[in-house]
Amino acid sequence: MIDVLVVDDDLRVAEINAKYVERVPGFRVAARAHSAAQALAVVQQGTIDLVLLDHYMPDQTGLELVHHMRDQGHCTDVIMITAASDVVTVQAAMRLGALHYLVKPFTFAALRTRLDSYAELRRTVDHVGDRDHTGQEQVDQIFGALRTPAAPSPAGLPSGHSEPTTDLICGVLHRAGHPLSAHEVAAETGLSRSTAQRYLRHLEQAGRLRLSLKYGDTGRPEHRYVWVAP
What's the pLDDT band for 175 if we cut at 50, 70, 90? Predict the structure, then answer.
């Protein structure tokens, strides 16, 4: 079994990520941490194979944590799972040896693909490691084990709906963690209310959002939508 440390300052997100990990054969969640200090303390115990690491935390960034891990001689593998998508952070993660970088929000399938490639990497290294020396073919096998297929475009989008806009709305609701109205989603995304409403209605029908009604003084209910974890 591959022992995983899930690190995220949001307890709800950490729980979702942990449940995702437990669904992948060969992986188990050994611990959760909600700050860099907690994560480092767990890594120092020497029982963790892989860290699923958020970047934004209350005491340090994820990359600062990786710096400390490496300075202390901990070679624990890291996969970044974060909303930070700027090029500087991505490049810094690569230079520190992060094996994958997954931008929130993401699907279970996206995480599983990266975990499966990580497991394949470990199998490949174990196999090649039986030899005293490696050639280019074996080196290519090691690096090739981490390659992941390009994510397919989601099927079933109605005419007039785009994948980037769908992802934008899903990201807003995923981060909110509580029901939002079409007006609030429009304000967060910069879309018109009618466009936001059209996408929200489709996502609710597809089972990705849950609809609730909020009654005000006028008696006319307001439709509010909340993210449903896959």
Answer: confident
User: Nearest 5 degrees, angle CA 181-CA 185-CA 189?
Assistant: 175
DSSP state of 161: -
Radius of gyration in angstroms for the set of CA atoms belonging to the chain, rounded to a whole number? 20
Which CATH fold topology does 2-132 show? Rossmann fold (3.40.50)
The residue extents of the domains of the chain are 2-132, 163-227
d(CA 83, CA 106): 10
Name the pTM for this structure. 0.64
Q: For 182, list phi and psi in degrees, rounded to 5.
A: -60, -35
- The pLDDT value recorded for residue 148 is 61
**C-alpha torsion angle, residues 87, 119, 49, 60 (rounded to 10):** 20
Topology of the domain comprising 163-227: Arc Repressor Mutant, subunit A (1.10.10)
Structure tokens at 79: 């996969």
Contact 148, 113 (CB under 8 A): yes
Q: Which residues contact 174 (CB under 8 A, 6 or more apart)?
A: 104, 105, 227
Sequence-distant (6+) residues with CB within 8 A of 223 are 181, 182, 197, 200, 211, 212, 213
DSSP string, 45-76: TT--SEEEE-S--SSS-HHHHHHHHHHTT---
